[in-house]
Design a protein that fits this description.
The complex is a heterodimer. By secondary structure, chain A is α+β, with helices and mostly antiparallel strands. Chain A has 12 helices and 16 strands. Chain A has 2 domains: 318 residues, 3-Layer(bba) Sandwich (FAD/NAD(P)-binding domain), CATH 3.50.50.60; 155 residues, no CATH class. In chain A, the strands form 5 sheets. Chain A has a 6-stranded antiparallel β-sheet, with helices on one face. The two termini of chain B are 46 Å apart. Classes of the chains: A alpha+beta, B mainly alpha.
Chain lengths: 531, 199
């Protein structure tokens, strides 16, 4: 396995339990550490030194990379939602986008396996297009979450236990969560899912896996028979060109990086890059639609002290509830979103209790100090995470003029939202404000038409998918339904690049299930002598 | 007790692992025992005095905790302005803060014949009362009310993220909890009562 970043061992390197007052600038986010000083991302972020990317004129796109063993699984939100039956056949349902070449039922056994391996808590709810899984028990909700749940009951919005890859019971030799609420720092005891602790280190213990870190993959090397022989890479230590060889090559470099490797794999045999006879590598790039609203709930003021840390994330969430309204043509946009909630008495760091004049009216002195103690923990916020429909204007390609410090041509991004996504963001804004006012609260920040209802920038939600789409026709897809390149039968992709659509269900669990399914296929094909 | 899913991992072993972690965490800051005096990066000596006076007017000592300057807020603020300017490549925030401090001095000299730090407490408060409630500020003072919002935020967040400020807040986390029980039933009873009153 080649890893462009450094080795990472969360047992030794996690910043669990450290206090912001012992960190520079109270652990505030920086360009080098966008999610704060204690975030698990070793090196990377929206900018990686010496590894630029470019954007076409008029495009706003952000590309988060984590150069470390396990990449973005170290700091991610652990939200683990299965795509539902509708999500695999969206074109059939509303005539937009494309259908997947597989069904929910085909992937369901692999969702089972993935959940059983990584450990996901949740509850069986039987909700439409929101399949239940093999769940560990969910953690009890926090006080503010129960208040929000009550408001949602009034509004007929489902508000149910969230589904996160965090252990609420000991599982597969890993201990249960100790509820310090800081999963993004990486968990020193491996109580949440992360690729190094759950996939890579156990795999290394078999003796069958060698990991080379600091290995920046450049290209897939083809043999004279058109099959992949291996991968060439730049060894970051001495900038030398190296190649590893194998019977099978599997790319899981993250969606856009995988497209970049394929597009940079140019030869006389593959003038447009490997696996790109369709010309579709890099195309139909998607991210998730995001928009947020914050508010203050007076009902939460001045409560007796209690620890509200819980797991590193929400204990309740709201799955999409308007499938039938959309089917009946009663909504101005296609596709849904789920709602993520936050609030409570979080770890006080940079910016804590800022903007208090919006709640207290201003002031200073002992009266202000007492007022601040009362309102601490009474803010809530809502983030929508919605489906983007793939479009022709959103893609990545090789920039003809720019290389990174390793001499590898970089990606140039093109990205555009359609009205479906923008109107979805509008619906998010209106819904979240309604929840806050229903709970007796005051909206503190929101967005309107002038910002397209606060819709996130492409890439900002860090759910890039779709750049090497799978399908059942080699002319209209890069990979077949096993995530195997049509043009190169011993080349596979197991990150989010094979996705055909980007349902509001965060990608990681589907990546895990698809990757497992592809791995089983590889083993099966090798046993049959077909690879 | 061992879970059938996890041979070899007992709850006790886990808690021991967890208990060991904070020791490592607190060991790091102990590397700088005899703290060198803070070297100012942005404020000059006079501005420093003004900042001390102003942040202690915003967060004075009371029965629960020390004042902002005792909690290191001037140091935090000076360092924060330098940090933001480097991160953002612009000193807009620094200019806003220094500009506001300058206005406070000029206005104080005009009204009381003394700069802000040297004015009597009642005089200082007379000035702050004009800018500390943004909705009530006179049109010509609104700019300075914005400055004061910013300065108050820096003081408040600097104080409540300091060791003294964190201890002051009703924050009981950042530690290992052996069993998560959700919202405390006593707190939920209060919330239920408030919810029923709210209708």
């Amino acid at each position: 396995m080649l890893e462009a970043g450094a080795w990472y061992d969360q047992a030794k390197q996690s910043d669990m339990f450290k206090w912001p007052y012992n960190a520079p600038h109270r652990a505030a986010g920086t360009r080098a550490k966008p999610f704060g000083y204690f975030d698990a991302t070793l090196e990377g972020g929206w900018e990686v030194p010496g590894e630029p990317y470019t954007k076409a004129r008029g495009t706003e796109f952000m590309w988060y990379r984590a150069r470390m063993l396990g990449g973005r699984t170290n700091h991610y939100g652990r939200i683990s939602l299965r795509m539902g039956p509708y999500d695999f056949k969206p074109y059939s349902r509303d005539g937009k986008g494309f259908d997947w070449p597989i069904t929910y039922d085909e992937l369901a056994p692999y969702y089972d396996k993935a959940e059983e391996l990584i450990g996901v808590f949740g509850s069986a709810e039987g909700l439409e297009n929101t399949p239940d899984g093999k769940f560990l028990p969910p953690p009890a909700p926090r006080g503010y979450e129960r208040v929000i749940q009550r408001a949602c009951q009034h509004l007929h919005i489902p508000c149910v236990p969230s589904r996160l890859a965090i252990l609420t019971k000991a599982h597969n030799g890993r201990p249960p969560c100790h509820y310090c609420g800081e999963c993004g720092r990486a968990c020193a005891v491996n109580a949440n899912f992360n690729s190094p602790g759950v996939h890579i280190m156990p795999a290394m213990k078999t003796g069958n896996l060698e990991v080379r870190t600091g290995a920046m993959a450049r290209a897939v090397v083809l043999g004279g028979d058109g099959r992949a022989r291996g991968v060439s890479y730049v060894d970051k230590k001495d900038r030398s060109e190296q190649t590893v060889y194998g019977k099978v090559v599997v790319l899981a470099a993250s969606c856009c990086e995988t497209a970049r490797i394929l597009l940079n794999s140019k030869s006389s045999r593959a003038p447009d890059g490997v696996a790109n006879s369709s010309g579709l590598v890099g195309r139909y790039l998607m991210d998730t639609v995001g928009s947020s609203v914050g508010g203050f709930l007076p009902i939460l003021e001045d409560l007796p002290p209690q620890n509200e840390d819980g797991v590193g994330g929400m204990h309740l969430y709201m799955p999409w509830w308007n499938y039938q309204a959309q089917k009946n043509g009663k909504m101005p946009f296609a596709r849904g979103y789920h709602i993520e909630i936050g609030g409570g008495r979080g770890l006080p760091g940079a910016g804590v209790l800022s903007g208090s004049e919006r709640i207290l009216g201003g002031g200073y002195g002992v009266e202000l100090k007492r007022g601040l103690r009362k309102i601490y923990g009474a803010n809530v916020h809502f983030a929508g995470r919605g489906e983007m429909i793939p479009n022709e204007k959103s893609y990545c390609e090789i920039d003809p003029n720019t290389v990174d410090q390793w001499g590898i041509p970089v990606l140039r991004f093109h990205f555009e939202w359609s009205q479906d996504e923008i109107l979805q963001a509008k619906h998010m804004q209106e819904t979240f404000q309604e929840i806050i006012t229903t709970a007796g609260g005051k909206v503190l920040y929101s967005q309107g038409a002038e910002t397209n209802w606060g819709i996130s920038r492409g890439g900002e939600i860090i759910h890039e998918v779709g750049a090497t789409r799978m399908g059942d026709n080699p002319k209209t897809s890069v990979l077949n339904s096993w995530c195997q390149a049509w043009d190169c039968k011993n080349l596979f992709v197991t990150d989010a690049a094979p996705f055909i659509s980007n349902a509001d269900k965060n990608p990681t669990l589907t990546i895990s299930a698809l990757g497992w399914r592809t791995s089983d296929y590889i083993v099966d094909q090798m046993k049959k002598g077909d690879l | 007790m061992r879970s059938k899913n996890s041979p070899g991992v007992s709850r006790r072993a886990i808690l021991q692992t967890i208990a060991a972690a904070p020791v490592a965490a607190t060991a790091a800051p102990a590397q700088t025992p005899a703290k060198a005096p803070y070297q100012r990066k942005v404020f000059n000596a006079h501005q420093w005095q003004t900042v001390e006076a102003l942040c202690d007017l915003i967060i004075p000592a009371d029965e629960r905790s020390v004042s902002a300057s005792k909690a290191g807020v001037p140091e935090f603020m000076d360092d924060w302005l330098d940090f933001r300017a480097r991160e953002e490549g612009t000193d807009l925030l620094t200019a806003e803060i220094l500009g506001g401090l300058t206005w406070l001095d000029q206005e104080s000299v005009r009204l009381f014949g003394k700069d802000f730090a040297g004015a009597a407490a009642a005089q200082q408060k007379q000035l702050l009362d004009r800018i500390a409630w943004p909705a009530k500020a006179a049109p010509e003072d609104r700019r300075w009310a914005s400055f004061f919002n910013r300065f108050r935020d820096l003081t408040v967040s600097g104080f409540f993220s300091s060791q003294a400020g964190v201890a002051d807040l009703p924050y009981l986390g950042n530690k290992a909890v052996s069993e998560w029980k959700g919202c405390d039933p006593k707190v939920w009873a209060i919330l239920e009562k408030r919810l029923s009153e709210q209708g």
